[in-house]
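Give me structure tokens for this 102-residue protein.
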Amino acid sequence: MTARLDPQEIIAASERLLAEAQQLIDQADAKLRSDGLDPAKFLSTAASEQAEKEGRALFEADMQAIEREVEAERVRLQFHNPQTNAASKPVSGGVRRPRNMI
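Here you go.
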């Protein structure tokens, strides 16, 4: 079973995690500055590239969905309008003569 944590313990743990995350961010910023890069510009450029990739992926997904819808509509129309279907055309290609009644 999971042990019940005191709310104060949960708050202390979350504060430790936040402090650790902030320390890692500060280290990354220091590394970027040591390489001669502005951290804010670097992050904005990385974010715009990520947004472009996400946008392209969403666009591709939309295009695939549109293609599926168009294909489904084409099949539906062929099913409801069999005279346009090549398989339903007569093989002889001519008009049938009426039968003589006996």
